[in-house]
Each structure stands twice: as C-alpha cells, then as structure tokens.
Amino acid sequence: MVDLKDLSVEAKQVDRAKAVFEREGILVAKNLLPAEVVRSVADFLRDAVMEIDKTVRPYGFSLQDADAPERLTTLMENPEASISEHDRHMFLGHFPLEVRLAEPLRAIPRFLNSHPLLFDLLSTERLYAHMPPTARYVLPRCSLARVPLHQDISYNRHMGDFCVVWVPLVPIDLACGGMAAYARTHHAAELIAEHKNAADGWLAPIDSGSADGAQRVVLAPLEPGDVVIMGKRTMHESMPNSSDRMRLSCDFRFFGEQSHSTKHYLDIAANTVVAPAAAQ
Known about the structure:
By secondary structure, the chain is α+β, with helices and mostly antiparallel strands. Helix content is 25%, strand content 20%.
C-alpha cells in the first residue's frame, strides 16, 4: 500500500528523491521552494483573481460573494447565458494567458534552475520549461473547476520526455483538496485515443477502471513550499475544494536538452522564451 509518506522526500535528499520518482512516478519534494518565492507568486495570483472579479461583476455577482460558487455554477450551466470563450475559460478556474506569461511566475522555474533536483530527475545539464505554465484558482466550496482523470502526455504531445511539477501556493488539506495521483502508472501507455476537447476545455476523462490495481494517493496534506513532481504518463486528477479557502496553484512541464518541444518554451538559464522553429 503506497501512501503520501512513501512519496515524500526532503528536497535536499536528491538521491532518495530520484529513487522514489523512478519507482512510483510521483514525488513530493518537501520544503523545496523558499517561502519568499511562494509568497510572491501567490500574491501575484491573488491580485489577478481581483481582475477576474471585474469580469464577473457584469454577470450580476462577485467572486467575493458567499454564494459565488453556486452563482457561477448556475451561470455556466445555463444554456441561455451569453458567455464568451475567454470568460468561460476564466470562470472555470484558469488564469488568462497574460497572467500565465507574466514575469512573476518565472520565479519558480528560476529557483528550480538553481537546485539539483530536476536536473537529477531528468538526467540533464540544462533545464527548459514549456510556455505558458498553467495557473489555477478554485473558489471555496467549489467543484466546478475540477480537472478530470488524465495523463499530461495527452495535453502535451508536442513535447518529448518531460516531468510535471505542480506547485500548491496555499496549505492543502483534505477539505481544500488538491490532487489524487495513481502510483506506478508512469510507464502506462497513453490511455486517451480521441483528442477532442469538451466544452469545459478538458479531454474526456480516463476511465478509472484503467487504474485498477494502481495505488490512488490523495496528495494531502501539503504545505506551501512543497512541490509534487510526476511523470508525463502518471494518471492524476484534481479534487473539489470543500473548504472556506480559495485554492491557488500553478504547474509547469520541464524537460532537458536531450528532449524537445515544437511549441514555445523557456530557456530558464537565459530567461528567454524560444519560439517554434517555423515561427522564428
């Protein structure tokens, strides 16, 4: 039986971390990110939520209202509602592109570029990150923004080998939710054949029966500074937020010099976004 303790390693224990990652396909690196890095990114995203609130208000309510999750769910499920794709994307918990491309989020890959962990896990001497990263907010008592069971390879076929790094920016407990992941699924074949997005932007969920025999681990509790690292085929899903707190997180896809990407990526050491060859 695999549990969170079996997946958790102090960030300085790089050799042990690599052994856990290679065996389980999931690693929780405890106390990896400095408090000031986490705080700066979290503050930036909280400010961005206030900008999203300005978009919500013309629909007749505010994200700060006690009944905002219910109002938002009703709005999103109303077939008569006129909601632009841009707004719908934000209301489902996604920060807009300009937020995800902003310099403050680069503080996380910049720090990870100064730490040996990802270099060791990816057996690389140079680190790159897909652009843009993902950043999400989940309102209190909200299940609307839940991400279905998936493998990241299905959303990132443009990349070679990579790992997923999920960064919680608030304390994660069972109420606030977070993620559940399936240990030892990182060598599985890609399980989604049809790459057609649903109205909420997600691919059809993987049938949980595909994970029969795998160990489902709820990745909680976690503290700001902890980081979850997964293989590109590791099956995982997000959890609803049943707490009275907003959940904030961001996630990145890192790869090394022996891999590739046919879309934009960040050369972290140079702090330069590299465009696809055809666009250069």
